[in-house]
C-alpha cells in the first residue's frame, strides 16, 4: 500500500502488481485508516484510488488465503470481510470526492473499493466483473447492491455469469460514471491535485467505444426474469440467439449452489433500501459460503491447481434444494455484521443532536 498527498489530493495506490493488487486484510485496514485521516484534513479535498502496474486496479481479495482458511475451518476470512464491507460502506458515504481509476482488471473486491465511490472512471482497458460464481462463491462487497440496480436484468446476467464488461457496458450498468482513455490517466491524476474532481475528469472524459449489452437487452431481460436458475437456462437455450445459448453453457459450468444462492441474494438485495442493509445480507451469505465444499473446490480448480475442472457438489441445478439456499441467509456463528443498525443509530443520534 502506498499513500501520498499531492496538492489538494490524497492518493491510495494498491501496490501488489504481481498479484494484480489483490486485497489483503492489512491493505483494507490501511485504506480505512487513510480515509479516516483525510476525512478531517482540510488540506485534502479529493481522494484518488489507483492500482500499481498496468494490468489493473485490483483483481479482488486474496482468495488463496480464503481457500486455506476455508479448508482449515478458520475465522480469518470472516474477520477480513467484516472490515472489508465496513470499508465499502465508508467509501459510499465518504464526505469528499472519491475518485476511482478503474483501469484494467477490476474484479470482486476491486469493485468494492471503486464502484461505491462518487467519481468512477473506466478506460478502454477496463474489464469490470463480479466473477464469484465461478469459484463457488456469491457476489459480495456490495456487488448485489450495484448489480441489483442495473437496468432491467443486466445485473442478474452479470452476477450469474461473472462476465467482464468494458467501459461502455460499465457505464450502462451503473458500475462507472466516466470514460477516460488510459493514456490520459496521468494527466487526469495531475489535474485532480489542483482542480475539483468533477472539473478534472470533465477535461479528459469522452464517449467510449460501443459495448455489447445494449444490443442483447431484449433476450437478457426476458430470460433472466424467470423465477429460477433452471428456467433462466431453459429460456436462454430456447431463444435462438447464439449468444444466449453460449451464455446458458457458461452458466452450466458454474457452481449450481452458488448460482441459486446468487439469484436469491440479488433479488433480496433489490428490496433493501441501503447499501448497509445489502452488506449485512452479503456478510451472512459469505460466511455461509465459507463452510461449503464448492468454495474450496472452486478456488482449487481456478487458482490453486488451475485445472479449470471443478467438481461441484451438488453437480446439477436440480439437485440444489431450497434448504441448501436458505442456509446462506442464516445468522453466522460470530453474529451479524450490523452495518444497518449502526447507520440507524447514527442517524438517530444526529437527529437528537440537531434537536
From TrEMBL:
EC code: 3.1.2.4
Transmembrane segments: none
EC supergroup of this enzyme: hydrolase
Keywords per UniProt: Hydrolase
Catalysis: reaction(s): 3-hydroxy-2-methylpropanoyl-CoA + H2O = 3-hydroxy-2-methylpropanoate + CoA + H(+)
CDD domains given in the database record: crotonase-like
Residue ranges occupied by any Enoyl-CoA hydratase/isomerase domain in the UniProt entry: 10-329
Name recorded for this polypeptide: 3-hydroxyisobutyryl-CoA hydrolase
Originating species: Streptomyces gulbargensis
Amino acid at each position: 500500500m502506498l499513500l501520498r498527498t499531492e496538492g489538494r489530493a490524497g492518493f491510495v495506490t494498491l501496490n501488489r502488481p504481481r498479484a494484480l493488487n489483490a486485497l489483503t486484510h492489512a491493505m483494507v485496514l490501511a485504506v480505512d485508516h487513510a480515509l479516516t485521516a483525510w476525512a478531517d484534513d482540510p488540506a485534502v479535498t479529493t481522494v484518488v484510488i489507483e492500482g500499481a502496474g498496468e494490468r489493473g486496479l485490483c483483481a479482488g481479495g486474496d482468495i488463496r488465503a480464503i481457500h486455506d482458511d476455508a479448508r482449515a475451518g478458520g475465522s480469518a476470512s470472516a474477520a477480513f470481510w467484516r472490515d472489508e464491507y465496513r470499508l465499502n460502506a465508508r467509501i459510499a458515504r465518504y464526505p469528499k470526492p472519491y475518485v476511482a481509476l478503474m483501469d484494467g482488471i477490476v474484479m470482486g473486491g476491486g469493485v468494492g473499493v471503486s464502484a461505491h465511490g462518487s467519481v468512477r472512471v473506466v478506460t478502454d482497458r477496463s474489464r469490470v466483473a463480479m466473477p464469484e460464481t465461478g469459484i463457488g462463491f456469491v457476489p459480495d462487497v456490495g456487488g448485489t447492491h450495484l448489480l441489483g440496480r442495473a437496468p432491467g436484468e443486466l445485473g442478474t446476467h452479470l452476477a450469474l455469469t461473472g462476465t467482464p464488461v468494458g467501459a461502455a457496458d460499465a457505464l450502462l450498468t451503473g458500475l462507472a460514471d466516466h470514460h477516460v482513455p488510459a493514456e490520459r490517466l496521468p494527466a487526469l491524476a495531475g489535474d485532480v491535485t489542483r482542480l475539483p474532481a468533477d472539473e478534472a475528469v470533465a477535461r479528459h472524459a469522452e464517449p467510449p467505444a460501443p459495448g455489447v449489452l445494449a444490443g442483447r437487452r431484449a433476450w437478457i431481460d426476458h430470460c433472466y426474469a424467470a423465477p429460477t436458475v433452471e428456467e433462466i437456462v431453459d429460456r436462454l437455450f430456447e431463444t435462438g440467439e447464439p449468444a444466449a445459448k453460449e451464455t446458458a453453457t457458461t452458466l452450466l459450468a458454474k457452481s449450481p449452489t452458488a448460482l441459486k444462492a446468487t439469484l436469491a441474494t440479488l433479488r433480496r438485495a433489490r428490496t433493501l433500501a441501503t447499501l448497509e442493509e445489502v452488506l449485512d445480507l452479503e456478510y451472512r451469505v459469505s460466511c455461509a459460503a465459507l463452510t461449503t465444499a464448492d468454495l474450496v473446490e472452486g478456488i482449487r480448480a481456478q487458482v490453486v491447481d488451475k485445472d479449470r475442472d471443478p467438481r461441484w457438489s451438488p453437480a446439477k441445478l436440480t439437485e440444489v434444494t431450497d434448504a441448501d439456499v436458505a442456509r446462506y441467509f442464516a445468522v453466522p456463528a460470530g453474529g451479524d455484521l450490523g452495518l444497518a443498525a449502526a447507520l440507524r443509530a447514527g442517524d438517530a443520534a444526529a437527529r437528537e443532536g440537531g434537536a
